Amino acid sequence: MGQSDSSQRVLLATLESWLHDTAPPVWLEGYLLLRAQGVGYRDAMLATWLSLSTDDRGDVPTREDFANLMGVARATTYQWEGRRPIIRDYAEMLRVMRLRGANLAAVDGRTFAAAVSSESSASDRKLYYQRAGVWDDATTLHVMGKEDGPVEYVDVTGEELDAIRQALVQKATGSGQEG
């Protein structure tokens, strides 16, 4: 059976007081963002905790510590996560948002500086173009067999297969002639 409404309100008040007064600022930022999106306080707390590195978790580095903070057994936190997989999505969203903050601007600045330096390499320039969103590594092949389906072994005649084998042997031995 769940906690009573009054004990949940007390827990929520205690948690939010801890977030405002004691927790590292990154806790409060993640928690408030998720709560503003309508995420329940337990899910918001767990997602925030999951999104943080052990160093950023402050006095709550382990799952046992987190469970104690929440007033539940450690197994309960796994149940929350298992029953609501979206919690992991929230955690990933928080990680990406932190990465895209000041760190991303610094990384992009360094990437640009490396790409335009007189000592830049092709990989420096490629990374810059990738970050700028103008580099496309994707190659799309549309090989079709009979009746617009995928090519299958049965689509190749014996003569075609022999010709392919011969061409591969010639290519591998260097005796193939290009015309």
What does this protein structure show overall?
The chain has helices spanning 5-21, 25-36, 41-51, 63-70, 74-83, 86-116, 122-132, 158-173. It has 179 residues and is an all-alpha fold. It folds into 2 domains: 5-92, no CATH class; 141-179, no CATH class. Helix 6 crosses helix 7 (122-132). The radius of gyration is 28 Å and the shape is elongated.
**Computed structural class:** mainly alpha
Measured between the Cα atoms of the first and last residue, the distance is: 80 Å
Number of helices: 8
Helix content: 55-70%
Low-confidence stretches: none
Strand content is under 5%
In short:
The protein has 179 residues and is an all-alpha fold. It is 65% helix and 0% strand.
Set out the fold topology.
Elements: H1 5-21, H2 25-36, H3 41-51, H4 63-70, H5 74-83, H6 86-116, H7 122-132, H8 158-173
Helix pairs in contact: 2-3, 3-6, 4-5, 6-7
Task: Record keyword descriptors for this entry.
179 residues; mainly alpha; 2 domains; 8 helices
